[in-house]
């Protein structure tokens, strides 16, 4: 029996109607769609560790355990920590859960870590890591006893069957912004960007329509082809002088002083991450109990519902859900998220979560843990190839999100729009996600609305006690996070 046969037997390729090549392409696609996190996560977390000077600029040096480190060294340490946490979580997803989902430190949660907890509340970054660690331990415990699965299975059906479409709109919104097709506007919040004057937007749109054409023709790896072709075209135009570095080079590679391309921040990775690893232990000392509990509470709620929404949405897209809208053995992928978060805090990064970009690999046919294993292997390879990953510009990698976002809109067909409870809950779930830039908030809006509308319809007995309890808990969460209690 050859290696491919062994892999097929272990992951159940035949059972899931897939094959080695399909899973390999799916894994590469997912990785390309989420690889930006390797350089973006350190960028977001860097201010938390470096701090700001009186001019509001990030300090160029900081002291950790008596040793002085410059911002580039800390950036590299954070990149390595991001990769390690991702690899561990993805391996659990691949080998234990056998699901095609990628995991990494989550966007939004890392910003909350830096700008709300550390900078806004003045909490040391070591204590913030301790809060993430405690959250991870709680997740492991409640996942092991089945409590997490029980709560997720209480989610109303209209919410479960609308999450996929909601994530689709969310991905579209994120992707079009990163491609600079949609931009901010002080009057209307968002508007169409100056596409004709923007080489990045033009290239991104060209790559997007190439991807759609290849996908429509049934080509395997259409998303990979779109991303790689666009990235190569961008660098070609940049290196030949047709476009400037500021127009087409990835932001993480631009020197703030000269505006030229530099690989200084992503070359020669700082593999010694001992200044970050274990820092959470120090963070457990001399904590203010009330503040610490509030931080853990917020991390817990956001990650719980964000992960639940992503798993259900991507699972619906991949047709993994049963007739009740439940993902069989959901506790296994949930454990991957819990273990990843705990290990991430131990090595020095923020909360790890399942990535919505996993839907790109699912669209390419990924159905088993081998897709996740490929993602993990590519993350591990990134330990020595960070500059290559950093060279993929946003207008290329985010093509995947827009393409899959459009495809995921088919989820609206699963919704009974004639039923008020379904239409209100599903409608809020789908629209609130992109409008608040949060899967968790969209999910919560639908969960809160469902028992209220059901009761108004005279069908109060159809609402389970647990669904009322979740709705009340979510209202309490929104009060805490919007009342100024967290600063």
TrEMBL record:
<feature type="transmembrane region" description="Helical">
    <location>
        <begin position="20"/>
        <end position="39"/>
    </location>
</feature>
<feature type="transmembrane region" description="Helical">
    <location>
        <begin position="395"/>
        <end position="413"/>
    </location>
</feature>
<feature type="transmembrane region" description="Helical">
    <location>
        <begin position="103"/>
        <end position="123"/>
    </location>
</feature>
<dbReference type="Pfam" id="PF00860">
    <property type="entry name" value="Xan_ur_permease"/>
</dbReference>
<feature type="transmembrane region" description="Helical">
    <location>
        <begin position="196"/>
        <end position="216"/>
    </location>
</feature>
<keyword id="KW-1133">Transmembrane helix</keyword>
<feature type="transmembrane region" description="Helical">
    <location>
        <begin position="368"/>
        <end position="388"/>
    </location>
</feature>
<dbReference type="GO" id="GO:0005886">
    <property type="term" value="C:plasma membrane"/>
</dbReference>
<dbReference type="InterPro" id="IPR006043">
    <property type="entry name" value="NCS2"/>
</dbReference>
<dbReference type="GO" id="GO:0005345">
    <property type="term" value="F:purine nucleobase transmembrane transporter activity"/>
</dbReference>
<feature type="transmembrane region" description="Helical">
    <location>
        <begin position="74"/>
        <end position="96"/>
    </location>
</feature>
<feature type="transmembrane region" description="Helical">
    <location>
        <begin position="425"/>
        <end position="453"/>
    </location>
</feature>
<keyword id="KW-0472">Membrane</keyword>
<keyword id="KW-1003">Cell membrane</keyword>
<feature type="transmembrane region" description="Helical">
    <location>
        <begin position="129"/>
        <end position="147"/>
    </location>
</feature>
<dbReference type="InterPro" id="IPR045018">
    <property type="entry name" value="Azg-like"/>
</dbReference>
<feature type="transmembrane region" description="Helical">
    <location>
        <begin position="334"/>
        <end position="356"/>
    </location>
</feature>
<keyword id="KW-0812">Transmembrane</keyword>
<feature type="transmembrane region" description="Helical">
    <location>
        <begin position="290"/>
        <end position="314"/>
    </location>
</feature>
<feature type="transmembrane region" description="Helical">
    <location>
        <begin position="223"/>
        <end position="249"/>
    </location>
</feature>
<keyword id="KW-0813">Transport</keyword>
<feature type="transmembrane region" description="Helical">
    <location>
        <begin position="465"/>
        <end position="486"/>
    </location>
</feature>
<protein>
    <submittedName>
        <fullName>AGZA family xanthine/uracil permease-like MFS transporter</fullName>
    </submittedName>
</protein>
<comment type="similarity">
    <text>Belongs to the nucleobase:cation symporter-2 (NCS2) (TC 2.A.40) family. Azg-like subfamily.</text>
</comment>
<feature type="transmembrane region" description="Helical">
    <location>
        <begin position="159"/>
        <end position="176"/>
    </location>
</feature>
<dbReference type="InterPro" id="IPR026033">
    <property type="entry name" value="Azg-like_bact_archaea"/>
</dbReference>
